[in-house]
Amino acid sequence: MLANLKYILEPARQKKTCVGQFNVLTRGMARGVIDAAEEAKVPVVLGIEEDQLDICSMQDFAAFVLPMAENASVPVAVHFDHGFSVDRCAEALRLGFTSVNYDRSQDPLDQNEFAVAGLAHVAHAFGASVEAELGHTPTADEADGTYAYTVPEQAEEFVRKTKVDALAVAVGTAHGEYKTQPSLDYDRIKKVAEAVKIPLVLHGGSGLSDKTVREAIASGISKIDIFTDINLACFQGDIQAYNDGIRMKSQAIPYELHAVKVYAAEKIRLFAGL
Ligand SMILES: [Zn+2]
Predict the structure, then answer these.
(1) Count of domains for the chain
(2) What CATH number corresponds to the domain at position 250?
(3) Among 83, 120, 165, 179, which residue's Cβ finds the most Cβ atoms within 10 Å?
């Protein structure tokens, strides 16, 4: 069933468990993730980022993902990730996405707050949820420089003023491939979780060790976002197909689907504590 993010994440927050968000670019990737979630009987989030729209448009994504979500036996949120403009976020809402991440994390705090509050007002009228970020989770390359950690003392007021449904926190992770295992600030997660009482989101979930994931969830993370590793898993399926002598795309597609499903199932079960 199609669900919004709040519907999926609030029970997870209360049970101190976690839901996976997997950003996908093809129908086959989406199918693999939903199959894994249905087998584990847990909700899941499927997303696409604004930066990926040149590969798969929002319209195409909505056209194949929304019916799959509606027909799924578990709740599935359809999420527009890292939307940088209000126009793109509004377009996602119009197309039927049930959740948007309005990313104004590189703006000054007051501008982030003002912009997100306006979008949340509109999104809630659509029955959709809004995720925003306080602090800024950089790319793995940028993370070597100054890291803009979430300031716990700013979180309560930000959430109260914006009325966001989920808050992404910058606590040591980064987007893309890590050169070394990141060191997370678990105390910072706990302080924000205590201050806001809404689900917290960890971006940069690819490549984290199981131990790191478990400690992040125990500290108060309710959603972990993954793109890099599921992207790699899908391509590994293609490589496996090639190594098995497959030379037709039609015969490689089942390999991709299987590789995505196996990867997603492992993460979904880890996040859910199964
Ligand atoms: Zn992200």
Answers:
(1) 1
(2) 3.20.20.70
(3) 83
